[in-house]
Amino acid sequence: MVVAGTMLAGKVTFGQTLLLGPDKSGQFKPVKVGGIHHKRVDVEEALAGQAVCFAIKSQVKKETLKRNMFRKGMILVDKDSEPESVFDFEAQVTILHQAALIKPNYQAVIHCGVVRQAAKVVDMDKELLRAGDRGTIRFRFMYHPEHLKENQIILFREGRTKGLGVISKVHKQAGGAGLRQ
Q: Cβ contacts of residue 61 below 8 Å, gap of 6+?
């Protein structure tokens, strides 16, 4: 299987084992890098800032990677980084444009790096938010967990309503890697 993207940090070398995920259940699976291309040229290592392609192979016995196993929002990370996937996170947000009142149970699409998924407002520090207001909102992803970190920038939208913010806290799930309870 060949995957492509931009290296955000670190270095990846030929033969290195990485973790691919999160899958729909929030798990990260080990994969081995069998080849690296940068600008359509075979290279031995990929560095931060480069747009690269990796030929990867599953390290799980009797499991081959298939196209339907991949989705937007998946990442490759170092096997020693112990990544976690989350359903809930808090963000300090500013409402840029608002057509509907933003209050608990409001749903919008979250854009954060490669993540694009619908999320609902679980809790807020104010009763409601309008255009120009700032506040802290706790979001919960609707379908599956994602890999997020604090200080990442998010954009959320729904119709003509748009908001911008920074993740202030991720809520790690008890009892498993991102599994909802």
A: none
